Amino acid sequence: MVFIVSLIVTLTTGSAWGTFSLLIPIVIQMLISLLHLQESITLDAIPLLFPTLGALLSGAACGNHISPFAETTVMAAKSTGMEPLEHARTQFAYTVPVIIGALVSFVLSGLLCNNGLYFSFFVSFGVGLTVCIVLLIIGNKFFKRG
To answer: Residue 75 is part of which domain span?
Structure first.
């Protein structure tokens, strides 16, 4: 959910840094509240901290990549002589497989968070990367030009 929310916030505002500053305090307090933690908190007490922050940061970066309002999209479009909306539209074919792969990866990471940080990371990363590559290969075969 954090990945989707940060992607939507960045897509609509065009600012990944604004999303970071808005959502990081909310997400950390949400985790502390949902896990019913007291004042002295260690990283071991919050096994979902790193996957949640990863979801927030990657969702914001992805939203920034496809937002027609983002400064990087505007600069890239104007330097190539395109309209920013057209440039953002061309990026969707590349970002949709990555979004699906990231969603699969974050769901797996959440399900495996109690099995250890390294195990959760390697399994979710491997499955997410595999999903992303398979979707890019399938998309390349179906949408090949000429």
So the answer is: 2-142
Which DSSP helix (H) or strand (E) runs through 132? Answer: helix 117-142
Q: How many other C-beta atoms lie within 10 A of the C-beta of residue 106? A: 22
pTM: 0.82
Q: In this predicted model, what pLDDT tens digit does every residue of 61-80 receive, in sequence order?
A: 999 888 888 888 888 888 98
Number of structural domains found in the chain: 1
Distance in angstroms (rounded) separating the CA atoms of residues 109 and 129: 13
In a 3-state reduction of DSSP, which class is residue 38? Answer: coil
Closest C-alpha to 88, from 107, 102, 109, 74 = 74
Give the whole-angstrom CA distance, residue 105 versus residue 18.
25
